[in-house]
Design a protein that fits this description.
Keywords: FAD, Flavoprotein, Oxidoreductase
Largest sheet: 7 strands, antiparallel
Protein name: FAD-binding oxidoreductase
Shape: globular
Strand content: 15-25%
Structural class: alpha+beta
Pfam families: FAD-oxidase_C, FAD_binding_4
Cofactor: FAD
CATH architecture of the largest domain: 2-Layer Sandwich
InterPro entries: FAD-bd_oxidored_4_C (IPR004113), FAD-bd_PCMH (IPR016166), FAD-bd_PCMH-like_sf (IPR036318), FAD-bd_PCMH_sub1 (IPR016167), FAD-bd_PCMH_sub2 (IPR016169), FAD-linked_Oxase-like_C (IPR016164), FAD-oxidored/transferase_4 (IPR051264), Oxid_FAD_bind_N (IPR006094)
Helix content: 25-40%
Number of strands: 16
Length: 461
């Protein structure tokens, strides 16, 4: 029956590219979590909106589950196909469709890489300001599905602030044209914002109109070494009061150890427990003097142990590599990842509590922290010891994550700051959302996806 159904799909959509080779199934059936064995039915690579609609109609008729797929750089299992689903990859829908100079918008297909969007915006003297380390491999469709944040949220906000309009194929195959690029639109529910962050459970983004911005002012990058955790938020407050920050990122000495071993160059001598990479507007001498004053004040108060300011674009890139290279450097260690957030005002108390929790629960396991401390987002990477089996390691990590979720609930935080819920975190959704909210979320899904074929098992079981 499966073969007959796929043959029928090919007859309906003769130009549709379908892959069924074992290597393709494995490649497209997983994301960066690497925790599930991929077992998709097949891989469909549509080249048009019409083909996406045709796939969805076929899937509804044949009751075949669909897993939407972009760059598959997710860390929550949101793009995993492990139970005979059809993977709908948007890799071929990767073009820039248009630029509007008056509206200052760029319309793109969902499979385009974030880095390509950056390049297209620069061609028109503008920027698309959402940015993070996976820019070369992640796709805009995936960014929208998880409301991606990244390193410049402190200045520009998350992805949803930059989406002017979306075209979405809902679970029943209908094409929705959401918001149409309007700045003001108070005509009922804004389904565009509902789709953003929905992890492919409501519909498939097939076109996006992105808002662009003016390029930032000339900036400078500074690396700071801090003596203890308590200094983190005090230095953030000091710099935010004196400078116009574009980014404020922190990492630990353990994170630095791994990224240096991966090929980055040390920028500050000596051993320090915490580091910050910050970028700020520096258009003139006055702004540069303000940065030096803030640094000197931090040193005088015992909040900063050492620091270096980039003197060239190359040095700025080298300083940023110390932060952006962390995820790649940890990959060989099979990290279990927690991506969490609290209000900025709650960060100090929360950090103290979870430091005690992680020290107690992981006495013999290396834990690497880094994150976007300026927007309350922390990434916790637990590295698997060689002495533990995968199953035992995951079981221990899930026990700790349950405790972490309870801590987040007390502090009013979220179990997922920017990676989504997917398969990894669905057991902890109730720590972030009330039972009433989850019931409404299920109800919304049933309207957009009446047969429950879109990314089943993701977000909630």
């Amino acid at each position: 029956m499966t073969a007959d159904a796929l043959a029928e799909l090919s007859r309906r959509l003769p130009d549709l590219r379908l892959l069924t080779e074992a290597g393709d199934l494995e490649h497209y059936g997983r994301d960066w979590t690497r925790r599930w064995t991929p077992a998709p039915l097949a891989i469909a690579l549509p080249a048009s909106i019409e083909e996406v609609q045709g796939i969805m109609r076929w899937a509804n008729e044949n009751k075949v589950a669909i897993v939407p797929s972009g760059g598959r750089t997710g860390l929550s299992g949101g793009a995993v196909a492990a139970h005979g689903e059809l993977v709908l990859s948007l890799a071929r829908m990767n073009r820039v469709l248009g630029f509007d100079a008056v509206d200052r918008t760029l319309t793109v297909q969902p499979g385009i890489a974030l880095e390509a969007v950056h390049g297209a915006a620069r061609e028109h003297g503008l920027i698309y300001p959402v940015d993070f380390a996976a820019r070369g491999s992640c796709s805009i469709g995936g960014n929208i599905a998880t409301n991606a944040g990244g390193i410049r949220v402190i200045r520009y906000g998350n992805t949803r602030e930059w989406i002017a309009g979306l075209k979405v194929v809902a679970g029943n195959g209908e094409l929705l044209d959401l918001n149409r690029g309007l700045i003001k639109n108070s005509s009922g529910y804004d389904f565009r914002q509902l789709v953003i962050g929905s992890e492919g459970t409501l519909g498939i983004v097939v076109e996006a109109t992105l808002r662009l911005a003016d390029p930032p002012q000339p900036s400078q990058v500074m690396l700071l070494a801090l003596p203890d955790m308590d200094a983190l938020m005090q230095v953030f407050a000091l710099f935010r009061a004196r400078l116009s920050l574009q980014a404020f990122e922190f990492f630990t000495d353990m994170a630095l150890k791994h990224v240096l071993a991966h090929g980055a160059q040390r920028a500050i001598d000596g051993e320090h427990p915490y580091y910050v990479v910050t970028e700020f507007d520096a258009p003139d001498e006055r702004a540069q003097e303000a940065a030096l004053t803030a640094f000197e004040q931090g040193v005088e108060q015992g909040l900063i142990s050492d620091g270096v300011i980039a003197q060239s674009d190359a040095q700025a890139a080298a300083l940023w590599r110390l932060r952006e290279g962390i995820t790649e450097s940890l990959a060989p260690h099979k990290p279990y990842k927690n991506d969490i957030s609290v209000r900025i005002s709650a960060v100090p108390a929360f950090l103290q509590e979870i430091q005690s929790l992680l020290t107690r629960e992981y006495p013999d396991i290396e834990v690497v922290w880094f994150g976007h401390i300026g927007d309350g987002n922390l990434h916790i990477n637990v590295l698997k010891p060689d002495t533990l089996s995968d199953a035992d390691f995951i079981a221990q990590c899930e026990h700790v994550t349950k405790l972490l979720a309870q801590t987040l609930q007390r502090h009013g935080g979220s179990i997922s700051a920017e990676h989504g819920i997917g398969l990894v975190k669905r057991a902890y959704l109730e720590s972030t959302r009330s039972a009433a909210e989850i019931a409404l979320m299920r109800g919304v899904k049933s309207v957009f996806d009446p047969n429950g074929i879109l990314n089943p098992g993701k977000l909630f079981a």
